[in-house]
Each structure stands twice: as structure tokens, then as C-alpha cells.
Amino acid sequence: MDFDDIALARFDDLKKEWVSQCSKSAQGICDLANRYRQRDDCLLRSMHSGSFNFSFRLHWEDDGEDWLIRFPLRGKSMFLDEKIIGEAVLMKYLREKTNIPVPEVIAYGAGDENPTGLGPFIIMTWIEGRKMSDVLRKEGGSEKEEVLDPHINEAVLESLYGQMAGILLELWKLDFDRIGCLALDEGTGEFQITKPPITLATNELIRTCGLDHVSTSSRVYNSSVEYIHSLLTLQSTHLTQQRNSIYDAEDCREKYTCRHLMKAIALNFIPTSSEETHGPFKLFCDDLCPGNVLVNDQLQVVAVIDWEFSYAAPAQFAGSIPWWLLLDQPHRIVSDRGGEGFLELFLPKADAFLRVLERREEEEEEGVGVGVGVGVGGKVGDDGKRLSMCMRASLRDRSAWFALAVRMVHSVDLIYWDLLDEFCWGAREKVAERVYGVTTGVEMHRRREGFVREKVDQLRGYFEELGVERGVEACVFGGCCWFLDQAM
Length: 488
Prior knowledge:
Aminoglycoside_PTrfase; five-stranded antiparallel beta sheet; Kinase-like_dom_sf; Aminoglycoside phosphotransferase domain-containing protein
């Protein structure tokens, strides 16, 4: 699905304004950091730009450790104060409740607490290391080309997979009674779920698709059914509101059908018993992957960073096989190789990961020290709730791909059509066959075609505003003729 170039340009202007302001704020940044170090000789040692944040390494001539100050990039991050404060609180929680190596939070504050005018900030200890993804990546690849090295040493892969398994096991031990983001009661010192979930998908719907904060607004949820229903509704909202969410009339029919079928199959994948749907919920991070894990020269994990977009979620999310086993996003591989081609690559790596995860679980039960993932949290889980068993089941019943499709609003169509549709509804030759079979009832056809006309009008208006000429009418008639041909 294309991005909304008009919305992107608007947010890109905000980013440029912020970068310009930041370039003139070195002294102000040092003054802010000096306040917490209680010194006056802060130096900006290096700068680091990420997808959603901009950071500086801070140094003092006092023989102490370096710090890092990080700001969310205005124009890239849509929930500035909420994101920074939520991440700082979560990092404190993880350091207290788990054995996961997380940088120590020194200070954090909302935008109105930062005299530099650069917005909210978080200061944490600097951790030296390289990204685990750099070790796993195909030789010669770049950070924009995340491809697992097909010739990676098996012992290295097993070690890194094992350490990631340990991190996921620690998170699996944490239970929550609601779905949402953690907050810290400064008075009592208690951590509680009182904030709505802030997700990567929501951030991108606003930034790249032109949706507003109201359309993507959320709340704290008490059941998995409620939350997943809200995500399915958000997918329909996105299709409706992004003016260029379709390419043409035929594409619109396919996307319209996809969202109806996602809702139709949902109860096949969501636990509906009262004791399952109402928790306990598990901590889940949309962006927890090797790219946000630092390792030392011995390839041992030294820090897990970038905990933004983390929230207590349905256990099914955390209990699904991780998407990052091939480094690249599944929908990109599906787009290149098709569903069967993706599974051909993915399943052997999934089996390798599950073997080391099972070994970790056994070692924890026996009390054997294995580094990350041992000792601080709760139990590994009874046989029915073991993380490895949940993940194996998620591959067998394809709930892993349903959970992924629900979360990834931009890519739901690729995931659904290539990994879920035939599993749920039986074989088909073409997507168009399913579209025709599902949406040709009189009332459904009327609603569908009314929606198609509205979307084509939206698309035409979008291109006019963008100043681009495109033959939208031909696309409409082509789509209608196809359906007439099929009906005859």
C-alpha cells in the first residue's frame, strides 16, 4: 500500500524544523545533561539517528560512565510525551522485575520540562556494543537490506537465537491484568496499566497514511476480544480514510473483502473463554528484534534498547513465533517469494529457534545458569503454558500469522491472502475468485460497489491535489468488466 505523500511531506517539514533547531542547541543539551550530572563540563561525543529518535552520547571528564540523551524526532514520532515517558517507565520496570540487560534510566521529562525546546527527553547510561542484526545480516548487506546470512555459522546462530529466547522467556514470566501501557505512580512507586497501548502501526497510520489522532485513538482494554476487535476496526478505518489506500477498483474490492474475511475468521484464532480472554496479558514490543539488541565482541548480549511501542497485549501476541527470525519483515518476503516461498525459508529457522527455546526452558527448570533469561521473573510455565509450546501451536494453527496480520495494518492484505485465506477457506486459483464468491450477494455487492465508488473519488481527489495525472476511470471500468465477465 502506498504512503500518503501529502501527509509525509507535512511531517517531513516538521522533522526538518526540529533538526534545524537541534543543530543550534548543543549548549542547551549539555546544560540539561549537566543538571543531572551536577557538573558543567558535558561534551557531545557523538550523534546517532534512528527511525524515530535522535540521540547524543554524553561525556564528562570525571572518570564516570558516559550517558546517552535521546529525543523523539518530531515528524517521525507521533506521540511525543507519551512515548518517551512510557518507555522510561517500562525500562525502570524491566530493570526491577527481570534479568534483561536494559540501560539505566537517569532522568526523563515531558516537552514542557525541557528548556531546549526539543521536546521530551530521556537520559540513560551509554552501553557499548554492536547490533545483533549486524552479526546476523548477509555479508555486504546494509541496515536497509535486512537479510539473514544464509551461510551464517550454525553455532553462532544457535547462540544468538538462544539469547533472544532468554529475553522472550523473561518477558513471558510477566503477567498483567489489562491491555495497555505501564505507568508509574510516583506516590506509591507502583507500576500499573493505566495508559492506552501505543503501537508502531498507530504511529505509522498517522505519519504515513494521513489518519488523525482521533481516528487512531485507543484506550485500556480488559479483554483480548475487545482489543483485537479494535484493531480489526482500525484496519477498516485505515482503508476508508487514507485517500490513496487503493490502486484501482479491483484492488479496492480485494482490500474490502480482505477486511471482511479477517473479521469472519477472527474467532477461530482468538481464545473466547472467560479465563483466557481476560488475561493474564503479556508484555509485547512491536519492535523487539535483533536490530535493537546490542552484543559485545564475544557475541554476548549487553543491552536491549528501544522499548518504545511496548505494551501489555493479548498473550497470543507474545506467544506467537517471532517474526524476525529471517531479519526481514515477513510481508516483504511474502511480496517477493509468495506465501509458500516465505514458509520454505521461515519454518527451518523457526524449528531451530524453538529447539534452543525448549533447551532454555529445561535449563531454567533445572536451575542451570544460562545468562539472559534466568532467575528474576516467575516460572517458565506449566506444560500447557510453556512459551515453546505456544509458539509451536501458533505455527501449526497459523495463529501467528493472524496475530501478525491484525497488528500490521499496512500489510494485512499480503499476510492474509498468502498465509491465511486458503488455510481458512480452502483452495482457490486467484484472489479474484474469493472476492467474487464472498461479496456477490445482493446487499453485500451493493455496499461493496458503493464503497468502491467512494474510494475511486477519493483517489481522484488525492491525485488532483498531488498534481499527478492518472487514468482512474479506466481502472474502474476494467474492474467492473472483470466481474461482469465472471458472472456470465
